[in-house]
Specification:
The complex is a heterodimer of chains A (88) and B (222). Chain A is an alpha+beta fold and 88 residues long. Helix content of chain A is 32%, strand content 33%. Chain A has a single domain, classed as Mth169, Chain: A, CATH 3.30.1280. A 3-stranded antiparallel sheet of chain A has the order 2-1-3, covered by helices on one side. The radius of gyration of chain A is 17 Å and the shape is elongated. Chain B has a single domain, classed as 3-Layer(aba) Sandwich (Rossmann fold), CATH 3.40.50. Classes of the chains: A alpha+beta (88), B alpha/beta (222). At the A-B interface, helix 1 of A face loops of B.
Chain lengths: 88, 222
């Protein structure tokens, strides 16, 4: 335990909004098809962040991670995000 | 001339302003907080902070950006070229965002642009509809904004340049990156902030095969 309390691990997933075209995803999907994986019907490429942080409790960590996302990790014009918190 | 770690068009812009437009120019390192008195701020092209996270996403938090935002709020001109445009978008000084080029390739070539408005401090020496030849060099110049933002840009005459054919026609074959509405450059509401992907500094002298970018500097000189 540190001065701040407990240690948490957060996995943040960032993806392009549905209204935004994803040329990278289209190309990867086409590559899967060319390998014969024809059951793949849609594919979007996103980003993944693994963050370790300290916090008092789960809800205060949630508030902080939301701020990380809105201030820096995500561009809300084109992206959306979700995250999972685990206690380390 | 703002310099970030990873800027690489700063010296070209510096040259175009000092030796072609014949104005006093000085560099402004991104760690500095107080912008010296100046008439124009240039955010040059390059790969600030290695384009990590998203293009321009880290540069917008540089200490220099607060004083640049104040300069813009006061109605004084700011031009962002290429990566400079991307930084202005991330900083919220212009609306929208950049996506990867439709082709996924880095595109480096001369393109034709249609000047869409002569009503700005940057374009008043051009005629509306004038077709000009400028080079582009980017991997993420696919401009995106929501339909209501696009409508606002159109209605307020804030699209400065669109990609076009040599004759000024619009169409997918002439759009090098997939930008919505073929947008190559936009203005803010007060019309004193311009972001554009093409490089006027690389086309301000005959020796560079096009002088069409020169009128941007001449427009600013009034």
């Amino acid at each position: 335990m540190s001065a701040n309390g407990r240690t948490f691990k957060v996995n943040v997933t960032v993806g392009l909004k549905p209204s935004v075209l994803d040329p990278q995803g289209k190309t990867v999907l086409a590559a899967l098809h060319s390998l014969g994986f024809n059951e793949a019907k849609d594919l979007r490429v996103g980003k993944h962040f693994e963050i370790v942080l300290e916090g008092k409790d789960r809800s205060s960590v949630e508030t902080r991670v939301r701020q990380f996302c809105e201030k820096l990790l995500v561009n809300p014009v084109i992206e959306h995000y979700s995250f999972e918190i685990k206690e380390a | 001339m703002v310099v970030f770690p990873g800027s690489n068009c700063d010296e070209d812009c510096f040259h175009a302003l000092r030796d072609v437009a014949k104005v006093d120019v000085q560099y402004f390192w991104h760690k500095e907080r107080n912008l010296p008195p100046c008439d124009l701020v240039v955010l040059p092209g390059g790969f600030s902070y290695g384009d990590y996270l998203r293009t321009g996403a880290i540069a917008r938090f540089s200490p220099a950006m607060d004083s640049i935002a104040k300069h813009a709020e006061a109605g004084r001109p700011v031009i962002g070229i290429c990566n400079g445009f991307q930084i202005l978008l991330e900083a919220g000084l212009l609306p929208g965002a950049m996506l990867r080029n439709r082709s996924l390739s880095f595109v480096c070539k001369h393109v034709f642009l249609r000047t869409e408005t002569a009503d700005s401090p940057f374009t008043n020496r051009y005629r509306k509809g004038e077709v000009i030849d400028l080079p582009i060099a980017h991997g993420e110049g696919n401009y995106f904004c929501e339909p209501d933002t696009l409508k606002q840009l159109q209605e307020e005459d804030r699209i400065a340049f669109r990609y076009c054919s040599e004759k000024g026609e619009l169409g997918d074959p002439y759009n090098p990156n997939g930008s919505v509405d073929h947008i190559a450059g936009i203005l803010n509401e007060k019309r004193n902030v311009l972001g554009m992907m093409p490089h006027p500094e690389r086309s301000s002298e005959a020796i560079l095969s096009s002088e069409d970018g020169r009128k941007i500097w001449e427009s600013l000189l009034g």
